[in-house]
Amino acid sequence: MNRTHINYTLHIHLSGIFFGWHRRFVWLWEKALREECGYQGHQPYWNWALSANNLSASPLFDGSDTSLSGDGEPLENRNETITLAPTNVTIPNGSGGGCVTNGPFANITLNLPDLDSASGDVFPKNAFAYTPRCLTRNLNSFMAQDFTSQTDVDRLLSSPDIVTLQQYMDVSVWPELREAGIMGAHPAAHMQLGRAMDDFWTAPQEPAFMLHHAMVDRVWTLWQAQDVKNRQYALNGTSVMGNPPDAPEVTLDTEVTWGALGQNRTLRELMSTEAYEFCYEYAD
């Protein structure tokens, strides 16, 4: 799963295939858990708003036996504040930053490199280098309160069209909203967990990744359901990151790939959670 995400990073983010590609990516993960690991449950989602006031107290991150483990060990001499690029908004730093040493994922090893220094639009040469390291976390409740609260979820669901939904979901790329100090819920949830989750390329190594993207999918699904006629098949953008002007706009016939994980699908086949391969729904 991690290698597939890396392979298609420059197409599946900030593009017209972001929602659909990740919908099936999470579904393929759940399918693998069921067929290869004997899992009999369902894919859970991380409701950002429920943990926004206190990440470390959330059942997901409290370090209990049924959690995804807790915060990382506090780093010595860490900065008290951090600046969120490209927003240039300065906020308090998180409470950890070091290796996770409690809960079910204590002391696990991540095998892919930290690609934070890689250029955002060039595939890194060391993308698949064997680089064993610990899972780190830096829980940041301030960021959660400001960018993934119920207010932020409501803003997403109130989007009048797909363009606005994309803007609020990944707001860091929209200058007028960056200037207002707003961070989109998608990148904000990645960033509030620290480096492992915030790595643009290798974030699926963080155990919370699939739950986060199930929540992204839930928001998209609930937004579609508000006006099925006009929203079920609403698309905007290209199949290239950043939607450069020379890239063609996606259509329902645009084919999307997950490499070795599963056969290609058209975007038409990804637009509903109750059609083609999919058969699931979310509580509103």
From TrEMBL:
<dbReference type="Pfam" id="PF00264">
    <property type="entry name" value="Tyrosinase"/>
</dbReference>
<keyword id="KW-0186">Copper</keyword>
<dbReference type="InterPro" id="IPR008922">
    <property type="entry name" value="Di-copper_centre_dom_sf"/>
</dbReference>
<dbReference type="GO" id="GO:0046872">
    <property type="term" value="F:metal ion binding"/>
</dbReference>
<protein>
    <submittedName>
        <fullName>Tyrosinase central domain protein</fullName>
    </submittedName>
</protein>
<keyword id="KW-0560">Oxidoreductase</keyword>
<feature type="domain" description="Tyrosinase copper-binding">
    <location>
        <begin position="13"/>
        <end position="30"/>
    </location>
</feature>
<dbReference type="GO" id="GO:0016491">
    <property type="term" value="F:oxidoreductase activity"/>
</dbReference>
<dbReference type="InterPro" id="IPR050316">
    <property type="entry name" value="Tyrosinase/Hemocyanin"/>
</dbReference>
<keyword id="KW-0479">Metal-binding</keyword>
<dbReference type="InterPro" id="IPR002227">
    <property type="entry name" value="Tyrosinase_Cu-bd"/>
</dbReference>
